[in-house]
Specification:
Blueprint: H1 6-18, E1 21-22, H2 23-29, H3 37-49, E2 53-58, E3 61-66, H4 70-85, H5 90-100, H6 105-123
Antiparallel strand pairs: 1-3, 2-3
Length: 124
Amino acid sequence: MVQLSKAEEQLMEHIWQRGKVYMKDLIEALPEPRPASTTVATLLKRMQEKGFVAYTQHGNSRQYYPLVDKQVYFSNHVNGIIRDFFNDSAAQFASFFTQSANLSKSELEELKKIIDAEIKKKKK
């Protein structure tokens, strides 16, 4: 799957949150200093070409909506990181993450519960 730039991800986050959104609403949701509408229009056009958004025409306005689910996008992104940086080893990634993320004991215990629950599902 094609990746989004940071600016495109920022716009996509707002689209995922709202489901359907007009460009003016996207611009208003962005932090100051807000980009020019031409910049946002260019980003939306690129996102459309990449297959992430589509729009419905309402008079002179376009209402954008997501074509890619947020969870699917980030799952593919994380799997790409595991493939590219951790020799396609989820165990290497998990080891790096748990040692580098400065997790508390309770956060590690919560991760263990999640992993234990997934192991139980796989046994069925």
